[in-house]
Specification:
The protein has about 55 residues and is an all-alpha fold. It has one domain. It is about 90% helix and about 0% strand. The longest helix is centred in the last third of the chain and has 28 residues. The radius of gyration is 13 Å and the shape is rod-shaped. The chain starts with a helix and ends with a helix. The mean pLDDT is about 95. Belongs to the UPF0337 (CsbD) family. It comes from Hartmannibacter diazotrophicus. This is CsbD-like protein. Pfam families: CsbD.
Length: about 55
Amino acid sequence: MDKDRVIGSAKVVKGKVKEALGKAIGDAKLESEGKADKIKGEVQNAVGGLKDTLRGE
């Protein structure tokens, strides 16, 4: 498994937590940061998956 997949998955989790916390406390900035982190993580996870596929893993 490529390290980008691991890091990307961690960013997705971090983004979900930030987004939920932002919603809970009414902080729109924190919520939007969480959404952005989640998207970045999903992209990085996809890149890692592509690298795995190219390597034949």
